[in-house]
Design goal:
The protein has one domain (about 35-130): Peptide methionine sulfoxide reductase (Metal Binding Protein, Guanine Nucleotide Exchange Factor, Chain A), CATH 2.170.150. With about 130 residues, the chain is mostly beta strands. Helices cover about 10% and strands about 30% of the residues. The chain is globular and about 40 Å long. The longest helix has 7 residues, at about 10-15. Bound molecules: zinc ion. Zinc ion binds near residues 49 and 51.
């Protein structure tokens, strides 16, 4: 059993999500850099989880990191889970939606703002509400 409060069967996830969204959110995939629809996107609003609609990031925390993925300097408190990820020969911190367990991306300690954090998030993992 998954520990997340929002649960769906794999077939329900496949029905809800596009093939690419499923690959990123449920199979920890990564979209190609500079291809996501929220990479260069700076309207005022809230970014929510594509899997379960939980608000994850405020637009005020978004910045242009130049890395090719939407980047934030903080998450809305308590909405993101942090997991040590040693895949691909690197030590990174994976970030997931705390509500449905959907893979969002990774967070790095090289952010340029006061928080020092750079949440690097797949556009495919999130939605936007203005
Ligand atoms: Zn979620």
């Amino acid at each position: 059993m998954s520990k997340y409060p929002y649960q769906k069967s794999e077939s329900d996830w496949k029905e809800q999500l596009s093939e690419e969204e499923y690959r990123v959110l449920r199979q920890k995939g990564t979209e190609r850099p500079f291809t996501g629809k929220y990479n260069i996107h700076f309207q005022k609003g809230t970014y929510t989880c594509k899997g379960c609609n939980t608000p994850l990031f405020e637009s005020s925390s978004k910045f242009d990191s130049g890395c090719g993925w939407p980047s934030f300097d903080e998450a809305i408190e308590g909405t993101v889970e942090y997991i040590r990820d040693t895949s691909h020969g690197m030590i990174r911190t994976e970030i997931l939606c705390n509500h449905c367990g959907g893979h969002l991306g990774h967070v790095f300690n090289d952010g340029p703002t006061a928080t020092g954090q750079r949440y690097c998030v797949n556009s495919l993992s999130i939605d936007f509400e203005s």
